[in-house]
Each structure stands twice: as C-alpha cells, then as structure tokens.
Amino acid sequence: MRPSARTWRCDPAPAEVRGFHTAQPDYSPTRLAEFPPLAAELAIGRVFVKDESCRLGLPAFKALGASWAVHRTLAERAASGQEPGPVTLVTATDGNHGRAVARMARLLGQHAHVFVPHGVHPQAVAAIVAEQAKVTEVSGPYDDAVRLAAEAAAAPDAVLVQDTAWSGYEQIPAWIVEGYSTLCAEIDEQLAAQGVVEGPDLVAIPVGVGSLAQAVVTHYRSRPSRRAPALLSVEPEAAACVLESLTLGEPVSVTTADTTMAGLNCGTPSSIAWPYLHGGLDAAVAIPDADSARAAGDLAALGVSSGPCGAAALAGLRMVLTGVGGDERRAALGLDATSTVVLLSTEGAAANPHSTAGH
C-alpha cells in the first residue's frame, strides 16, 4: 500500500493516438459492462469490467499498442529516407503482443519474426503462425526470448517492436504505451454515459512488464482537475517482478515459474514503466493461479469472456478487500459502499488456451 501515489503527477499521452485508432476500419470501443453481483460481493457501490476480448479483430488489448507503434515506426523510417521495401518486425511474446505485431505486419505488407518462450500454449503459437509470421520457440523464459529477439533485430531491414524497454531501447516501447491510452479514454466516455462523471475510485490492472499499467498511471495522474483514483497492480505469484520492485524501492528481476497467467509471466519491469509504477501505483498484489481461474469462471458466468490474465484484476481486488487486514486495506484505498471500481479484463478466454478456465 502506497498512500502518496494519488498526488504523483506526469504529462498526458499524445491526443493524436485516439484519432489514429478511430480511423482504423475495424475500430470500435470495447464494452464497459456493469455487474451489480460483483459490487454486492465486494461491498462496493458499482463495479465495471472493461472487456478486451475483441479489440481491433484480436482477442486482447495488445493490438492498441502494436498498431500505433508499428505505424510510428514505419512513418519514422519513411521520413528518414530509408529504403521503402518491406522490413521484418521482430518481437518476443507470451502470446497476444506477438500476434498483434504479426497482424499489423501482414496488413501492412511487412514481415514478422516472433520469439516465444517456454510454456506458451501451442494454440497461441499457431495463432501467430496464422498471421504469416515466422515463429522461433525458445527453451527458456520470457526474458530469454526478449534477448534473442533483440539480437535477431540487429539484422538489416529488421526492427524490434518490443513492449518492454531497457537502457538504449525506449522509443518504440514508449509508442506502445501511448497506444494503450485509447483504452483509458474510452473508459472516461463510457463511465460518463453511466453517470460517473468524475471517473472511477479504483482501477485494477493486470501487470506483466508494466506497460499497460504505465499507460493507466499516465492517464489518471496527468489530470489534476479530476478525481485521482487508486490504482492497483495485479501479478501472478510466479512472476511478481513489480510487487518485488515496489517492495524494495528499485527495479529488480525475479526468477519466474510456470503460471496459467502466461501473458503476465515476466521477470523484469520495463525501464520506462518503472518511474510511473513507482510514482503512481497505490497498491500491488500477487495472486495464485487458482484465484485467477476462479475469477475467469465467475466472469464467464456473467457473460464476460476472460482468460486468467484478464480475470487477474478481479482476483487481485478480491484478495485485497477480503481476508485478514481487508478492512484496513479498503480504508487505505478510500473505498466504501458508494465507490466505483473498474476492472481491466485484458484478454478473452480464446486468447490464451492454457488453463482449464477457458484460457
């Protein structure tokens, strides 16, 4: 719990990102659905779920960041006078980001080379191959796949489109984060249409390397005239690099283990995300696989297709607000029977077919 986070401030995302996305032929806002049964269970006024099970024709939010970053990358190459021929977009992925990059490459007449770490389900790999991408399967964890992708991108006419940053590689990851701002802008409009003009009191965010969380922090911490919500990050116990980093006060890498939350199985926070996570997150929690599986099943019963990564937001909020110390944590987050909470369900059940919960 970090009570000073709501006073932290940063600059907003570029306004032109939303216009780019709305101009795409398959763009429409994903739904924001209200679920009174969840509000009653958690003793909260209103609970909304942002359902990212179909985003720009793909079953996860990642298409927002990949589309904007690839657009900016190709525009920069053209402006700098580089050869106009096809380039190879290289990335590492636990599934959804790589598929989104591969989709953009196919649509724009480019090539794609995607590295996938150990543990990614064969159906997720097949979905990337179906986008006409070359896939290299890596025997090690996600961080190993990122390293090998970076090495491959050093080839001529290749460019790395990675959603994690490190020293010396920051511009394209920053564009990916900018792309996610469209999701937050939609939430503002959709809540206002539901009578929640001042915005939510808490947003729960599934976290891998922290890029989506960086975008959410940027959105809500760049508006001093609006109510500042509490922001909660949720990770697998098997890969809680952000929780560990926040606990220690500096970014650290952790050794990851297998988890059904494959898209969150990351051992190192993104370097550009870290200042935002450290400054703007109110709380962080790590959850076991069983909790995300239960949450995915509960969301399915309510009509939301959500894999364990997407359902992690509900599972994390449940852990924070219930059990020993739940009342104290609820008070620290400023939540009561009148509060409005938004849960980010970042992927559909079909996006990651790894678990028995429709993953």
What does this structure look like?
This protein is of the alpha/beta class and 359 residues long. Helix content is 40%, strand content 14%. It is built from 14 helices and ten strands. The protein has a six-stranded mixed sheet with strand order 1-2-10-7-8-9, with helices on both faces. Strands 5-4-3-6 form a four-stranded parallel sheet, sandwiched between helices. It starts with 15 loop residues before the first helix and ends in a 14-residue tail after the last strand.
Characteristics:
6-stranded mixed β-sheet; alpha/beta; 4-stranded parallel β-sheet; 10 strands; 359 residues; globular
Q: By helix and strand content, what is the structural category?
A: alpha/beta
**Average of pLDDT:** 94
Largest sheet: 6 strands, mixed
Number of strands: 10
Spatial shape: globular
Give the secondary structure arrangement, pairings included.
Blueprint: H1 16-22, E1 32-34, H2 36-42, E2 46-51, H3 62-79, E3 88-92, H4 96-107, E4 111-116, H5 122-129, E5 134-137, H6 142-152, E6 158-160, H7 171-179, H8 181-193, E7 202-206, H9 211-220, E8 230-236, H10 241-248, H11 274-280, E9 283-287, H12 289-301, H13 308-321, H14 326-332, E10 340-345
Parallel strand pairs: 2-10, 3-4, 3-6, 4-5, 7-8, 7-10, 8-9
Antiparallel strand pairs: 1-2
Helix pairs in contact: 3-4, 3-7, 4-5, 7-9, 9-11, 12-13
